[in-house]
C-alpha cells in the first residue's frame, strides 16, 4: 500500500506584514539583501514570520513541515550567497521567471557554514511531534546557479558543492525527510562530460543523513539520459513535475528505467493562483499512480511542483490545505 | 509585413531647421517629482486629510510639469512621463474586468509587485487612457505619444486562472487593446507605442506577439503611427521574424549593450522604421552630445535617415530627474546636429560609423 504524505518543496512567500517590515528594516537594493549576520531586529522579524508559516502548515494538516526558507532572498542560491568565501555579483534572472537573485561568485574554499542548520534548529523548537522536512538546493542546481572563481573545473566545482552541502546536512537537527531541489536538471541539463558525476554528487549529500531523501525536479520532464543517470543516485525518491512537465516523457522515463521505491508527485501548481480543490488533487494522485506500471510505492509525497514564493500569501496558504485534505484518506489499491 | 504607410512627416515641427528629420521621442516613464511620491503616500494614509481628489489634482500638476519638461528638452513628441502609473501591468489590470488582485509577490529581494490574476473573461469597460491622453494633449504644444502595455506582457505577467493558454489570454487582451486604440484615435491620438518587454524573456513566443499585433492594428487608420517597444533581449531570436509585424516602428534599447547586437538587424533588410535607444537608462552618467551622435550613426547602419527615430533605451524613471532631463536634451541636440551633417552630405550612409582603426 502506497502511503500518501502531503508536503511542499519549501521557499514560502513571506507573510504580507513581514514583506513590509523587512523591506523597511533591510531596504530594497542589492547590498541590502540577507548577509547571514543580520542584526537582532531582522532576526526577530524572521523568527515571527517563521513561527507563522510553521503554524500554517501544522494547522493545514500537512504531514511534513518545512522551515519555509523565508530568509532565502536569493532563492536556491541562498546557501552560497551567505557564505564567507562567496562574493555576490550582479542581479541575474532566476530560471525563466520574472525573479532575480545575486550571482554567487565562489572565490575560496566552500567551508562549513551552518546557516541552514541554524534555521532548522529554530524550526525544531517550534514543532511538537510533527515531522520536520529539510530543504536544500541539489548540488547540480546550486553549481549551475553559481559562478566558480576558485575551483577552476566544472567537475571539481560540482564535487565541492556536493561536499559542502553534505557538511551542512551533517549539522542539521533530526529530520524526517530531506528535499533536494534540482530544477537545473530540467532547465539546463548536464552535458556528457559531467552527467555521470551528478548522481555521485547527489549521493554524497544524501549519504550525510539517515532521513529519506527526495531529489525533486521541476519545470518540465527530464531528458532520458539525465533521468537514467539520476537513477544511480542513492536517494529514496525522485520528484516529478506533473503540472508544467511533458507528462508523457516523464511516464516514459519511469516506465522505461524504473524509479525509486518512493516517489514525489508535483501536482499542485506553485505558480498559479487558481487553488486546486482536494478532490482534484486526489484524482491527479490516482491518475498519475495508475500510469506508473506495476508499481506500488512505499511513499508518494504529494506536493506543489515548485517553490511557493511565486504566489501571494493567501493563495499559498489555501494550497497547503488542499494538499493536506487530498492525502487524508488512505489510497485504495486496485487489485 | 510592417504596415508600409507613411505617417512620420506629421511629427516634423513647423519651424524645423534641417532638411533631414530624425524624429525624437521617449519611451514613456520619467522620474516622479518627490512631492508626488509624498502625495501618493498621503492619499493611502487613512488618517490623513489628503483625499483621492487631492491626489488627482497632484497627478494633473505632475503631468503638466513633466510634459513641459519634455517640451523644454526639445523633443518632437512628448509623453506625460506616466505620472499616473505606478506599475505597467497593475495599472491596466485595475481597469480590466476579469482581473483580481490577491496581494504582492516577490520579484527580487524586497521588491514586490501586485501580480494580478485573470479569474474570468477579460472585458472592455471604461476607456483606460483616454482621459489622460486628452489632458496631456491639452497641455502640450507638441504631438503626444501614448504608451500602452502590450497584451502579451499583460498576459505573461499575470496569473492565468481562466484561459486555456497564455496565448488565448493574450489574444483576448489584444482585442481590448484594439478597442482602446480606437477610442484614443477618436480622441485625436496619432502616435501609439505598444510595450512588450516580456517578449525579450520568452523570444520563442514571437508568433504570439505577431498575432496580437494583427488584432491590435485591425482598423487603425494609416496616419496613426504604431510603435512596438522591446528591451534587453537576444534579438537574433526574434529577427528577421519581427519584419512581419504589422507596425510602423520598432523601438529597441542597444546603447546599454554598446550596440553589440546592431548587426543582427542589417541582414535581411530591416522593414519597419527603427527607433533606436541612444542613451543608457541604467547609467546615471550623462552621455555627451558627441557620444550620442556616434550612437545615432549606429542606427544609420540599419535604416536610412528617413526611417530613423531617436529615443532613450527605455523608460528613464530610475534615473535622477536632472540626469534624465540632461540626457533628453543632449539627445535632441545630437539628433539636430546629425541632421545638419546629413544635409551637408558629411555622413557616408554606406559606412556611417567610422571604424576604430
UniProtKB/TrEMBL annotation, chain A:
Residues 90-286 form the Cobalamin-independent methionine synthase MetE N-terminal domain. Keywords: Methyltransferase, Transferase. One of its GO terms (molecular function) is 5-methyltetrahydropteroyltriglutamate-homocysteine S-methyltransferase activity. SUPFAM superfamilies: UROD/MetE-like. Pfam families: Meth_synt_1. GO terms for biological process: amino acid biosynthetic process; methylation. InterPro entries: Cbl-indep_Met_Synth_N, UROD/MetE-like_sf. This is 5-methyltetrahydropteroyltriglutamate--homocysteine methyltransferase.
From TrEMBL, chain B:
Its cofactor is Zn(2+). This is Methionine synthase. It comes from Haloferax profundi. Pfam families: Meth_synt_2. Residues 23-336 form the Cobalamin-independent methionine synthase MetE C-terminal/archaeal domain. It is an enzyme of class 2 (transferase). Belongs to the archaeal MetE family. Zn(2+) binds at residues 229, 231, 253, 314.
Amino acid at each position: 500500500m502506497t502511503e500518501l504524505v502531503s508536503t511542499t518543496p519549501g521557499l514560502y512567500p513571506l507573510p504580507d506584514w513581514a514583506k513590509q517590515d523587512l523591506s523597511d528594516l533591510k531596504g530594497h537594493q542589492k547590498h541590502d539583501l540577507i548577509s547571514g549576520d543580520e542584526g537582532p531586529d531582522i532576526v526577530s522579524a524572521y523568527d515571527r514570520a517563521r513561527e507563522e508559516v510553521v503554524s500554517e502548515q501544522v494547522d493545514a494538516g500537512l504531514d511534513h513541515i518545512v522551515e519555509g526558507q523565508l530568509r532565502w532572498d536569493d532563492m536556491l542560491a541562498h546557501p552560497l550567497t551567505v557564505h564567507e568565501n562567496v562574493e555576490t555579483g550582479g542581479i541575474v534572472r532566476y530560471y525563466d521567471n520574472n525573479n532575480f537573485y545575486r550571482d554567487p561568485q565562489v572565490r575560496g574554499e566552500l567551508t562549513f557554514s551552518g546557516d541552514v542548520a541554524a534555521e532548522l534548529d529554530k524550526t525544531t523548537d517550534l514543532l511538537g511531534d510533527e515531522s520536520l522536512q529539510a530543504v536544500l538546493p541539489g548540488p547540480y542546481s546550486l553549481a549551475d546557479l553559481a559562478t566558480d572563481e576558485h575551483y577552476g573545473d566544472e567537475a571539481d566545482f560540482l564535487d565541492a558543492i556536493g561536499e559542502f552541502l553534505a557538511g551542512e546536512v551533517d549539522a542539521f537537527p533530526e529530520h524526517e525527510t530531506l528535499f533536494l531541489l534540482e530544477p537545473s536538471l530540467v532547465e539546463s541539463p548536464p552535458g556528457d562530460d559531467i552527467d555521470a558525476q551528478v548522481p555521485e554528487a547527489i549521493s554524497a549529500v544524501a549519504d550525510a543523513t539517515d532521513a529519506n531523501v527526495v531529489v525533486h525536479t521541476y519545470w518540465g520532464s527530464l531528458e532520458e539520459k539525465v533521468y537514467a543517470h539520476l537513477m544511480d543516485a542513492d536517494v529514496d525518491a525522485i520528484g516529478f513535475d506533473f503540472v508544467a512537465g511533458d507528462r508523457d516523457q516523464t511516464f516514459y522515463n519511469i516506465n522505461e528505467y524504473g524509479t525509486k521505491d518512493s516517489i514525489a508527485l508535483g501536482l499542485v501548481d506553485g505558480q498559479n493562483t487558481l487553488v486546486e480543490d482536494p478532490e482534484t488533487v486526489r484524482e491527479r494522485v490516482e491518475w498519475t499512480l495508475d500510469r506508473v506500471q506495476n508499481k506500488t510505492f512505499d511513499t508518494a509525497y504529494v506536493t506543489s511542483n515548485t517553490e511557493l514564493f511565486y504566489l501571494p500569501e493567501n493563495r499559498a496558504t489555501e494550497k497547503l490545505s488542499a494538499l493536506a485534505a487530498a492525502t487524508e484518506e488512505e489510497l485504495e489499491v486496485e487489485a | 509585413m510592417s504596415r508600409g504607410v507613411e505617417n512620420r512627416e506629421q511629427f516634423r515641427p513647423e519651424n524645423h531647421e534641417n532638411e533631414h528629420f530624425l524624429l525624437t521621442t521617449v519611451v514613456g516613464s520619467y522620474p516622479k517629482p518627490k512631492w508626488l511620491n509624498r502625495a501618493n503616500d498621503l492619499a493611502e494614509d487613512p488618517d490623513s486629510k489628503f483625499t483621492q481628489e487631492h491626489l488627482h489634482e497632484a497627478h494633473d500638476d505632475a503631468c503638466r510639469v513633466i510634459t513641459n519638461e519634455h517640451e523644454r528638452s526639445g523633443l518632437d513628441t512628448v509623453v506625460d512621463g506616466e505620472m499616473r502609473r505606478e506599475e505597467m501591468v497593475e495599472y491596466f489590470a485595475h481597469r480590466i474586468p476579469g482581473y483580481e488582485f490577491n496581494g504582492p509577490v516577490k520579484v527580487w529581494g524586497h521588491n514586490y509587485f501586485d501580480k494580478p490574476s485573470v479569474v474570468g473573461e477579460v472585458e472592455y469597460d471604461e476607456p483606460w487612457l483616454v482621459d489622460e491622453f486628452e489632458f496631456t494633449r491639452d497641455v502640450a504644444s507638441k504631438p503626444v505619444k501614448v504608451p500602452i502595455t502590450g497584451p502579451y506582457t499583460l498576459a505573461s505577467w499575470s496569473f492565468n486562472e481562466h484561459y486555456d493558454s497564455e496565448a488565448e489570454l493574450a489574444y483576448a487582451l489584444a482585442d481590448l487593446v484594439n478597442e482602446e486604440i480606437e477610442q484614443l484615435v477618436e480622441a485625436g491620438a496619432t502616435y501609439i507605442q505598444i510595450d512588450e518587454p516580456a517578449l525579450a524573456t520568452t523570444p520563442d513566443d514571437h508568433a504570439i506577439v505577431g498575432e496580437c499585433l494583427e488584432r491590435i492594428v485591425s482598423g487603425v487608420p494609416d496616419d496613426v503611427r504604431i510603435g512596438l517597444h522591446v528591451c534587453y533581449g537576444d534579438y537574433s531570436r526574434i529577427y528577421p521574424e519581427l519584419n512581419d509585424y504589422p507596425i510602423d516602428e520598432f523601438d529597441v534599447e542597444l546603447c546599454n549593450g554598446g550596440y553589440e547586437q546592431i548587426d543582427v538587424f542589417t541582414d535581411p533588410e530591416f522593414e519597419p522604421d527603427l527607433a533606436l535607444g541612444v542613451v543608457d537608462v541604467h547609467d546615471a552618467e550623462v552621455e555627451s552630445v558627441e557620444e550620442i551622435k556616434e550612437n545615432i550613426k549606429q542606427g544609420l547602419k540599419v535604416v536610412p535617415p528617413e526611417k530613423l527615430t531617436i529615443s532613450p533605451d527605455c523608460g528613464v524613471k530610475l534615473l535622477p530627474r536632472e540626469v534624465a532631463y540632461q540626457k533628453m536634451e543632449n539627445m535632441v541636440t545630437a539628433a539636430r546636429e546629425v541632421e545638419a551633417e546629413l544635409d551637408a552630405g558629411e555622413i557616408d550612409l554606406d559606412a556611417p560609423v567610422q571604424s576604430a582603426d
